Amino acid sequence: MTEVLLRVENLHVYVGETQIIHGITLEIKRGEIHAIMGRNGAGKSTLANVIMGHPAYEITDGTIHYKGEDINEMEVFERARAGMFLSFQYPAAIPGVQVGTFLRKSVASVRGEAPSPREFRKELNEAMKQLDMDKSFLSRYVNDGFSGGEKKRLEILQMLMLQPDMALLDETDSGLDIDALRIVAEGINAVAEHTGCLIITHYQRLLDLVKPDVVHVLIDGKIVESGGPELAVKLEQEGYDWVDALA
């Protein structure tokens, strides 16, 4: 029986006095890729941030279970150490911190101990080769002056190095040209077989390269329709007007 990694049940979420998520239920098993699509402001990024434990959001009802454990009260760093990973829609710059140092510290923090320098270099070289990244990248400051494509590649590089069990990818495809999109998709596919993936995207083009098992449509903080990859194709062709009546 395939392990259920993430189970979200009847989730209601507020930011201040405003309710953003209205009773979402979702289950993701190991090896499954789920895509969430919807208009801007539908609550897609909020859902990813809440699952990862962002303190700005208040869960007023419902639960999030990860590997069978209720994690509603778990801190962000605890979720990361348990194998959860969130790629940001807008990755922040960290001037003065080199990429190589950042990755080494991140890996040590999540794994609980630092890998040997030789082991770390081997893993890093393999991951960077997979993403077609030059080694000069490691001496640059994290996201400082990076293009949109470089930021997204660094997010995927982190994912390859951290080897999560549950990956939450928030619009990882935004701002990518065709070649960069292909490389990022290859990185996602490299971990997807052994990982649960929740991919937030506006565009079906990523889902041509990363085949989802399930596509969910989010409208006003509610999942109003779920289906296979053909649902993403329909949304690309017809937009969201037809699902408004389901909300």
Show the helix and strand layout.
Layout lengths: L3 E12 L2 E12 L3 E5 L6 H9 L5 E9 L2 E2 L5 H6 L2 E4 L6 E5 H13 L5 H14 L10 E2 L5 H15 L3 E5 L7 H15 L3 E5 L3 H6 L4 E6 L2 E6 L1 H10 L2 H4 L3
Parallel strand pairs: 3-10, 3-11, 6-9, 9-10
Antiparallel strand pairs: 1-2, 1-4, 4-5, 7-8, 11-12
Helix pairs in contact: 5-6
The share of residues in helices is: 25-40%
Mean pLDDT: 93
Alpha-carbon Rg, integer = 18 Å
Order of H and E elements? EEEHEEHEEHHEHEHEHEEHH
Q: Decide which structural class fits the backbone.
A: alpha/beta
- Counted by DSSP, the helix tally is 9
What profile does the largest beta sheet have?
A: 6 strands, mixed
* CATH class category label: Alpha Beta
Task: Kindly report how far apart the N and C termini lie.
Answer: 33 Å
Features:
single chain; 247 residues; alpha/beta; Rossmann fold; six-stranded mixed β-sheet; four-stranded antiparallel β-sheet
Structural summary, described in words:
The chain is α/β, with parallel strands linked by helices. It is built from nine helices and twelve strands. The strands form three sheets. It has a six-stranded mixed sheet with strand order 6-9-10-3-11-12, sandwiched between helices. It has a four-stranded antiparallel sheet with strand order 2-1-4-5, covered by helices on one side. Helix 5 packs parallel to helix 6. It is globular, with a radius of gyration of 18 Å.
